[in-house]
Amino acid sequence: MCLAIPMRVKEIDGDSAVVEAGGIRKNIRLDLLENVEPGDYVLIHTGYAIEKIDRKEAEETLDLIKKVYRAGMTNDAEGLLE
Amino acid sequence: MNISLDSFHDPEIAGILTKKLQELDIKEPMTLMHVCGTHEHSLAKAGIRSVLPDRIRLVAGPGCPVCVCPAGDIDLAIQAAEKEKVILATFGDMFRVPSGDRSLESMRAEGSDIRVVYSPLDPVKLALDNPDREVVFMAVGFETTIAPIAASVLSGLPKNYSMITSLRLVPEALVFLLERSEGSLDGFILPGHVSTVLGRRGYSFLENEYNVPGVIAGFEPVDILQGILELARQVVAGPPFRIENLYKRVVRENGNTRANRMIYKVFEKSDSRWRGIGGIPGSGLKLKEEYGYLDAAERLGLEYDEEMVDLPEGCICDKVILGEAESEDCPSFGILCTPRSPVGPCMVSSEGTCRARYQCRRVQAD
Ligand code: SF4
Question: A50, B142: Cβ pair inside 8 Å?
Answer without folding.
Answer: no
